[in-house]
Amino acid sequence: GAAPSGCPVTQMAEAFDAFEGPYQLDPAEALRWSRDQLPIFYSPKLGYWVVSRYEDIKAVFRDGILFSPRNVLEKITPATPEAMEVLKGYGYAMNRTMVNEDEPAHMERRRALMDHFIPANLEKHQEMVRRLTREKMDAFINEGRVDLVDAMLYEVPLNVALHFLGVPEDEIAVLRTFSVAHSVNTWGKPTDDQQVAIAHDVGQFWAYAGKIIEKMKQEPEGTGWMHETIRKNAEMPDVVTDSYVHSMMMAIIVAAHETTSLASANMFKTLLSNREAWDDICADPSLIPNAVEECLRYAGSIVAWRRQTTAPARVGDVDLPEGAKLLIVQASGNQDERHFEDGDKFDIYRDNAIDHLTFGYGSHQCMGKNIGRMEMRIFLEEMTRRLPHLRLAEQAFTYLPNTSFRGPDHVWVEWDPALNPENEHP
Ligand code: HEM
Questions:
Q1: In testing the pocket of ligand 1, which one of 97, 359, 378 has its CB within 8 Å of the most ligand atoms?
Q2: At what angle do helices 242-273 and 172-187 cross, to 10 degrees?
Q3: How many C-beta neighbours within 10 Å does residue 83 have?
Q4: Does the CB atom of residue 110 touch ligand 1 within 6 A?
Q5: How far apart are CA 25 and CA 31, in angstroms?
Q6: Whether the Cβ atoms of residue 372 and residue 89 lie closer than 8 Å to each other
Q7: Which domain holds residue 90?
Q8: Torsions phi, psi for 411 (to 5 deg)
Q9: Ligand 1 mean position, distance from CA 134 (Å)
Q10: pLDDT of the chain, 426 residues: tens digit per residue
């Protein structure tokens, strides 16, 4: 038998915990040792190979055949038998969506469902984002203190997502519970007791998704991406399958919404903690698009994604067996100084910020990336114009512990309403 190794790097690999400690505090910083000394390592606690360097992560994303996305939505902490019983009771059958589908089925489906993402459609939603943002801001602009998440960054992306998808907005109150349950269920480490409660929420989310589909089928002329999906399902049931429609209905609400809300919360926290950058964009809004990209690089909302090898494979100089599970940590790659000079420094003038891996890379790259970017850009345009004197309040930031979805639960900010530019010129 092997004696415990005295090698400090091996000890770091053995100690790596994706659910608590340094990784939850700051995933990029937590893997600095790995980027420098052991860029691909096996984590015995997680049962995954962790990949931390930019080029290695990109190489994994690039080859979707050898590195299959089939485990992307798998429960990273396996369900307990009790939780499985609960899920079965709801007929839970989450399966392939798009993000976890192998080729050639994936590309065929992606092509069949791509039309809705054209720029003209984005334009239309841009007006909606602007209007909703202004309405939310009107409600708090004279308050002097607000939690940006509760006051704006949660609901605006949710409304935009539901509108883009064509999902009726009548039951949005339950979606927050459902989304958190889906995230913990897929990327978290619930205790045995929590597993059962979460299984009930996830089961209800599944049933709810089924009900929405039935409701939407009553409106054959309905608009939105999920309406098109439902029509394609009737036209080409082998490409856009029934299972896909139901699974996607549940997954896309989280994929389109939670990702954008969290990225926006990260963005305000980061910019307000880097006052010069905030002041610079207040003075020159043309800096906003690159500032958004830099925020996505430096503090993205998807910090790690997954792949599984379909044959023996080599990443960097490590040989992996067939079936190896990989945790590819974009947050780490995004700060890799081998690709980004002074990668751990936030710099809105960085000329290659857009190279970040927060939207993934290759054939599965995020289809909604320009919607997310557009929302973040409009949030910044409106906030820097109307509340340039905004400050981050004293607070302890909290996060939902999980491997992949990252953003503060709340972002409290303060300002003096008497100094609002719009109050100065009545
Ligand atoms: C896929 C991140 C917003 C729809 C992905 C992937 C990531 C991601 C990491 C997997 C990429 C890969 O495997 O290479 C994000 C982030 C967002 C965001 C950080 C916001 C800041 C959205 C929005 C929508 C959306 C707003 C839809 C309206 C999708 C879809 C896929 C996807 C459909 C699957 C694409 C495929 O597998 O071919 N996203 N996303 N995302 N995203 Fe997003």
A1: 359
A2: 90
A3: 24
A4: yes
A5: 11
A6: no
A7: 63-302+358-424
A8: -135, 95
A9: 26
A10: 355 567 888 899 999 999 999 999 999 999 999 999 999 999 999 999 999 999 999 999 999 999 999 999 999 999 999 999 999 999 999 999 999 999 999 999 999 999 999 888 888 899 999 999 999 999 999 999 999 999 999 999 999 999 999 998 877 778 888 888 999 999 999 999 999 999 999 999 999 999 999 999 999 999 999 999 999 999 999 999 999 999 999 999 889 999 999 999 999 999 999 999 999 999 999 999 999 999 999 999 999 999 999 999 999 999 999 999 999 999 999 999 999 999 999 999 999 999 999 999 999 999 999 999 999 999 999 999 999 999 999 999 999 999 999 999 999 999 999 999 998 765
User: Helical H runs in 188-322?
Assistant: 192-217, 225-235, 242-273, 275-283, 288-298
First to last CA, the chain: 79
Instruction: Return the amino acid letter for 287.
Output: L
Question: Quick check: is 292 in a domain?
Answer: yes
Q: Calculate the CA 25 to chain-centre distance.
A: 17
Residue 71 belongs to a domain = yes
Classify residue 426 as exposed, middle or buried by CB count within 10 Å of its CB (0-12, 13-18, 19+): exposed
The pair of structure tokens assigned to 291 is: 């500032």
What DSSP designation does 102 have? P
Domain CATH number, residue 252:
1.10.630.10
Compute the chain's Rg from CA coordinates.
22
In a domain, 45, yes or no: no
Atom of ligand 1 nearest to the CA of 98: 37
Total number of domains in the chain: 1
- All residues at 6 or more sequence positions from 36 whose CB lies less than 8 Å from its CB, including other chains: none
Rounded to the nearest angstrom, the distance between the alpha carbon of 197 and the centre of ligand 1 is 28
Instruction: For residue 373, tell me if it sits in a domain.
Output: yes
Matching residue, tokens 């080409």: 236
